[in-house]
Every structure is written in structure tokens, then in C-alpha cells.
Design a protein that fits this description.
Blueprint lengths: L1 H10 L2 H28 L2 E4 L4 E4 L18 E5 L9 E4 L4 E4 L1 E2 L7 E6 L11 H12 L4 E4 L4 E5 L5 E2 L5
Parallel strand pairs: 1-9
Antiparallel strand pairs: 2-3, 2-10, 3-7, 4-5, 4-8, 6-7, 8-9
Length: about 170
């Protein structure tokens, strides 16, 4: 690193050198943040409980194909399920992979229903894109749904379906 910086001082004009040093500082900050970010975001990790439905591919038949909610995943808690969800999906380094929004009203059978598209706060990213992003960042497609209390729920493959009769 010292040789690299010395070389930069010899070949770069001062303003360009300042920009390069700022860029290096930003990269180091990102690297430092990503190594501790997961434990900062996820205080504990659990598998998806049976009362928490994750659909990464096929949405429920009652959602019309032209509805934006049909374009991405969903996380649905059955009524009485002791879980929370912040709308954040992260990889195993704590990098935010997606933001999902609540669909209201959730309905009589559900505590909450979150979708990756067509709801407030959702960034409309496909589950295939989520898997690709996680894989590029960490080498694994596994992502985590972040609860409001810091408890995270492991989703082994965001393109798959878990805990639904329609999986």
C-alpha cells in the first residue's frame, strides 16, 4: 500500500491525488463496515418458522399477473406468528440486497404481508436479482429477512418458496 501511494504522488497532479486518496478511504471504510455489518444488523439468526411464508418465484393465484406485486417475492406472516419484519433483506455480510414494503390491509388471516414490488418502500427487485447480488457480494445466494428487533430469518435461496402450500 505504501509503494502504491508513493507511486501515486510521483505520477498524479495534486487534485487527482486527493480524489484517489478519497476513493481509497471510501473503499477501506466500505470494507471495514461490511466485515462488522452483519452482526450489527442481525443480532440473532433463525430459520424461517412455519408461520412465516416466503415466496420467491410463484405468487398467489389471486394476484393478477399485471400487478407489480407479481414481479418479485413476498414475505407473509400468519396471524399469531411471533415475528416482525423491517422490510430489509440483507446478505450474509449485512449488505442491503432489497427493500420490501407492507401491503395493507394484511387481511384477516395474516399479521403482515410484504412484497418486493408494488408496495410503499419496495425497490422492485426480482428474487433472481437478489440471489445474484448476494452471490456476487458473498459467494452465497443466502439472504436474511431482518426483523424489527434485530432477529433475522435465513432464506437459503431467495428464488425458492418456503412454508406455503403452493410451493
Amino acid at each position: 500500500m505504501k509503494k502504491y501511494l508513493l507511486l501515486l504522488t510521483l505520477i498524479m497532479p495534486l487534485p487527482a491525488l486527493a480524489d484517489e486518496l478519497d476513493s481509497i478511504a471510501d473503499e477501506l471504510e466500505d470494507l471495514t463496515r461490511s466485515t462488522s455489518a452483519f452482526s450489527d444488523v442481525c443480532k440473532s439468526v433463525a430459520s424461517l418458522p412455519g408461520c412465516l411464508i416466503y415466496k420467491g418465484k410463484k405468487q398467489s393465484a389471486h394476484i393478477p399477473r399485471n400487478n407489480p406485486r407479481h414481479k418479485s417475492g413476498s414475505l407473509i406472516a400468519k396471524r399469531g406468528c411471533a415475528v416482525t419484519f423491517s422490510g430489509k433483506i440483507v446478505d450474509n455480510k449485512g449488505n442491503r440486497i432489497a427493500s420490501w414494503g407492507p401491503y395493507t390491509p394484511a387481511g384477516a388471516l395474516y399479521k403482515f404481508r410484504y412484497y418486493g414490488c408494488g408496495t410503499p418502500g419496495a425497490n422492485c427487485q426480482s428474487t433472481k436479482s437478489m440471489a445474484s447480488k448476494a452471490k456476487a457480494n458473498t459467494g452465497s445466494v443466502t439472504v436474511f429477512a431482518v426483523g424489527k428487533t434485530g432477529k433475522c430469518y435465513r432464506i437459503p435461496n431467495p428464488t425458492k418458496c418456503y412454508n406455503s402450500s403452493t410451493c
